[in-house]
Amino acid sequence: MSERTIFIGDVHGCFDELESLLDKVNFTPREDRLIFLGDLINKGPYPKEVVDFVRKGNHLCVLGNHELGFLRSLDEERYFKKGFKKFYESLGKDRDEVIEWMRSLPLYIEEKDFICVHAGLEPGVPLAKQNPRVLTRIRTWGGDPEDLNNEDDPAWHDLYEGKKTVIYGHWAMQGLWETENTIGLDSGCVWGGKLSALIWPERKIKQVKAKRQYAEF
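Structure (tokenized):
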């Protein structure tokens, strides 16, 4: 296993910023391991380049809600209705390989001292029994898996009591967020914020600013 594991928050097609961030953390392929927290695609300018980097580099990545939405749109033959058409058409001859790779992405990665997931966890539920919708979409928790972003409910991480650190993305409005046992890395790069990396086990955060705002809330 590599000496450092580097987690990277929601890239959303911001390939230039990804390259800058990898330079900033002095990423060395033979020595470091990269784990992406999902939402590689959509909204930003270079989703295929981001996917190609992760896929061809054999880097780890969990399934984000945008990847999940893309796959479900393909299954329902309505990708063009969900804003995925441009990405789908950009895949060209690599289309089948990319789709197969994306279908293989796990919903979470668990190791001795951390769990990484795109969005978060339902409090009190064993990891293996978590609802995929919750894993990819949760922000707040009030008991309803269909209502995961309710400002009247507490943040899911305020209810998490596990010992393993949960490293997650998905919540750009919250921004970079750290508690004793959770670390949120979606700092809104595609919205004009920053792209964030967590160097593990040191728990050091590195960031680069977005070159511009690519999408609007």
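The radius of gyration is 16 Å. Strands lie at 4-8, 32-36, 60-61, 108-110, 114-117, 165-168, 177-178, 182-184, 194-200, 204-209.
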